[in-house]
Each structure stands twice: as structure tokens, then as C-alpha cells.
Design goal:
By secondary structure, the protein is α/β, with parallel strands linked by helices. It is 43% helix and 20% strand.
Amino acid sequence: MKLTLLIFLSLFFLSNISFSQTPQSTKTNSQQPFILGVVEKIQSAELSETRTLNIYLPEGYSADSAITYPVIYLLDGSANEDFVHVVGIVQFLTMIETMPKSIVIGIANADRRRDFTFPTTIAQDKKDYPTTGSSAKFMAFIENELQPFVQKKYKTNNIKTIIGQSLGGLFAVEVLLKKPKLFNNYMIVSPSLWWDNESLLKTSTTALEKQTDSINIYISVGNEGKIMEGDAKQFYETLHALGKNNLHVDFVPLPEENHLSILHNSVYKGFQMLYPKKASKK
């Protein structure tokens, strides 16, 4: 009797092991990668190097369709930087239909201090950051290589947005002042306008004043110290004082945010201002 019971319990135990393993094996085999975007490599003559692009294509995107999309160019667009969370904002806001479906081009960094800064006259900065000062080359890369590449390969329209924070914000300001035609929308977050003893604040606005196309400019800064906050506000006041109807300038301080936390919330608010909700019908 005991032997029969022992055999029964052994067979029951073994059958349970076999049953529990089957679903686990099936589950493992059914796993598939979650794909957020595609990775492109572009050889740049302007920069003398190959650059990586992380690209998000909106739901329903088809190369065979006649539908075209706005393009968002994201500085600091590496996979381990701002690409994933900014794409999340874009995907969510398009899902709830508060902004148009858009392509996001995340420009992965190679040397952000080199690419986002113009030459400085400050000796200590030259010593501490010896690779800085090549923003003109990076601007030429965007104008002559990156934008033509994107326009040729993807279904784009004429709406182009740049997003930059910190040194990326400094670069976005430089583009706005020197080559404003490159983008329709500028999202400038916590710009490092302190660079080179705030010389960019003294740069001529002539190129911007001559611009006849409509440009939207969104400037934001958090609780980031007197210099950073004061420079951002001064830049906004300079643009506002131009009094040009084709320049739509918004300044949004976010005192509850700091330099590390501001970008996500600021970009969300920036898109809400860029694409305000339509007034509800009564």
C-alpha cells in the first residue's frame, strides 16, 4: 500500500513539473523585441565622421503613402539621453490628437561640447574643454547634410522643429540668430547663454529681423541660478522687443524644475503651446 502510494505521488509530482515547464518554454519562444524606432548612419563631410541618428516614425507611417509629416530634430538624441522620453511625449500627444503625427530625428552625440559651442575667449574654458568651438561645422552639417538626407529618405513636409537644452539650447539660440530659416519652431530649454561671457546675447539679430516666414520660439528655464534664469529672460525680452508679427515668442519659467529635471516637463508644455487645443464648441 505504501509502495503504491509512493509511486502515485512520484508520478503526480513529475507530471506537475512537466506541466509547469511547458507554458514557460512557450512564453520564452513567443517573446519579440519592442521596436521604438530605427537607427541610421550618415557619413558627414562637414564633420569628417559618421554620425548616428535615432529615428521615430509615427504610427501608420508608410513610404508608399502620400501623407507627409513634420520633423522634430532632437539634440542630445542618443538612446541613453533624451530620445526615448521625448519620443514618448510625441507619441502620447499624437495619440490624444493634440499635435500632428511627427517624425523624430534624435541626433546622437559624438562630442556635444565641440558641436554645440562656438569659440570662446575665456582662457579657463579653453583649458577645461579643449574640444569646444565647432558649432559652425555642426550647423553646416544640419543644413547641408542632415536635413537633405531626412527630406530625401522620409515622407516630410516643410515643418521643422529643433529641441535643445543647456549647451543644446545655446546651439539652438545660435541657429536662430544666424540661420533662422533652418527651422520653423525653436524649443529652447535652459540655454547656456553664459558661454563666452554671454557674448551670444550681444549678437546681432539682423538675420532674424530679415526673416519673413513665421517662426515659433519657446524659451523655458527652471530654478537654475541667477545667471541662467536672467540670461533666458533677457533673451526673451530681446526677441519680444523686435515687435515682428511673424515671430511668436513664449517664455515659460518652471521654478519647480531644476537643470536635470526640466526637459521632459518643458517639452510637454512646449508642444502644448505650439499646438494649442482648439476651443471646444458650445
